[in-house]
Amino acid sequence: MLNRVLNTAFEIGKEKTELGTVATYIPELGKADKNDLGVCISTQYGMTLCAGQCEKRFTIQSISKIINFAVALEKLGAEKVFERVGMEPSGDAFNSLMKLEKADSTPHNPMVNAGAMVICGYLTEICTFEEMLQHARRWCMDEEIYMDEDVYASEMANLSRNRAIAYLLHSKGYITADVEKTLDLYVKMCSLSVTAKSLANLGLVLACKGVDPKTNEVLLQPETVKIVNTIMFTCGMYDGAGEFALRVGIPSKSGVGGGIISVVKGTMGIGIYGPALDAKGNSIAGIEILEYVSKNLNLHMFE
Ligand code: GLU
User: Fold this and answer.
1) Catalytic site residue 256?
2) Global pTM?
3) Is ligand 1 within 6 A of the CB of residue 69?
C-alpha cells in the first residue's frame, strides 16, 4: 500500500518538474538538473521506501535552519532563544529586509533568514561548525554528510543581501556575536550535502519525539521537538506556508536546493529532492507528491 502510494505520487511529481525552475541566485545551485526527483519515506518500524534519486546529494539550504534551531533550543532553552527571535509567520519572502528596519523589528521566526541568523549568532558564541556537523550526521543518520565547498564558496561570493540582514540585526543588538563568523556558520550549515534519505531520517526523529526508533536513543528533548515541529508547521514553507498547511497538513520545511523534509507525527519522516522550484521557492514536484501522499494515506493533521 505504502509503496504503491509512493510510486504513484512520484509519477505525479515527475510530470511537474518541467514547470519549475532551479534557483540561480546562488550560481552553483543553477547547475542542478531540474528533472531530478527523489522521495524517501522512513517509518517508525524501521522501513525505508524510496522512489527515484533518494541517494543523490544536494545542499540542505534552509532545512539547516531546523538543525540550528534545535541545537540552540537544546543548549540555551526556549526562553533565551525567543528573546531575540519571534514565533510568528512573516508572510514575506525568506530573505526580506522590509520589516527589520521598523521600531520593533524582532525577526519573525527562526525559519526566515533573519531569524536563522539570530540563531546562528547564538550558536557562534557557544559551539563550532564541527560540532554542528556531528549533530547533523547523527540526527540524519548519515555519516557521509559533508560541507559542499563549491556551494559554500558560491554563496559566500554572492552574500550581499544576507550580509545586509546580518549587519542590520547586529546594529540593533539582535546579533552580538561577530557578524562575519555568524554568516560563515549560517552559510556552512546551508551547504551541508544531504540526500532525500537523510532528510527522511531526520523527519522520523522529529516524528518520534526526538527518539531514534531503531536504537531508542534520545537524540532530542521532546520539548525541543514540539517547538521545532510547530514552527515548521506555521512557517516552514516560505510565504506559501498557509496554503501548504491547508493542502498537505504536515509540518514541513523546504530549502532552495530543492529539498523538503516532512514530519508525520508518530509515524514517518519524508524526505524529497526536487530542485525545480515554484515561484515561492518550494520544490514544485515535492508539493504535489506530499499532497498526494497526505490525501491517500490520510496524513493531514486536521482530517
Ligand atoms: N542559503 C540560502 C540563503 O540564505 C538558503 C535559502 C533557502 O533555502 O531558503 O539564501
Assistant:
1) yes
2) 0.97
3) no
